[in-house]
Specification:
Blueprint lengths: L1 E5 L1 H6 L1 H13 L12 H9 L2 H5 L3 E7 L5 E8 L11 E9 L8 H15 L4 E7 L3 H8 L3 E11 L5 E10 L6
Parallel strand pairs: 4-5
Antiparallel strand pairs: 1-2, 2-3, 3-4, 5-7, 6-7
């Protein structure tokens, strides 16, 4: 597996593959902001809606590619608005996804590491994320050194539409400055 940071042009070229990954992830039960069934057209539109943010550097997207150059995973970092000078040190880790056929191969952990290293290189010192409480993703974040900040009950609906709690996590990366 290799991870490739996608610029706006590469994202546009791979939007179909990313949409298939998004649909597979949601339809497989992962709670990432969508209800099942997640149709390909909706997933394509969602990814196309990210193009401007990628183009202006507010969103960084990586794709995990298998040996056949097929997208099997993705992760993104969302950076704060430039007009918020008090939050330039942090970013949100969003939409970590691995195709069901590619799970169990360390792709999620590798994508997490890629995002953490890129954040550090960009001068980010604090990452945060949210995930469905008791989801398989929680094990990954805990084992990768992320700290649980708390749980919000009934925060988001799972793909089946049932309200579920969400756990917030954070991780210090890079060098802290005062």
């Amino acid at each position: 597996m290799r991870a490739l940071r996608l610029g706006a042009d590469q994202l546009s070229e791979r939007v179909g593959e990313l949409a298939e990954l998004l649909a597979d992830t949601v339809n497989g039960g992962a709670s990432i902001g969508f209800l099942a069934p997640c149709e390909r057209e909706r997933a394509v539109a969602w990814w196309q809606g990210r193009l401007d943010a990628v183009a202006v550097g507010r969103l960084a997207v990586w794709a995990a590619l298998d040996d056949g150059d097929r997208v099997v995973g993705t992760v993104s970092l969302a950076f704060p608005f430039p007009d918020k000078p008090n939050s330039r040190h942090r970013a949100e880790l969003v939409k970590l996804m691995v195709h069901r056929e590619a799970r169990g191969q360390g792709i999620g952990r590798r994508l997490l590491t890629v995002a953490e290293e890129a954040a550090t290189a960009a001068g980010i010192t604090l990452l945060h994320l949210d995930t469905e409480t008791d989801s398989p993703a929680e094990h990954l974040y805990r084992s990768a050194g992320w700290t649980r900040a708390g749980v919000i009950p009934d925060y988001a609906a799972d793909p089946g539409g049932v309200l579920r709690p969400t756990t917030l996590y954070y991780k210090h990366v890079g060098a802290l400055t005062s």
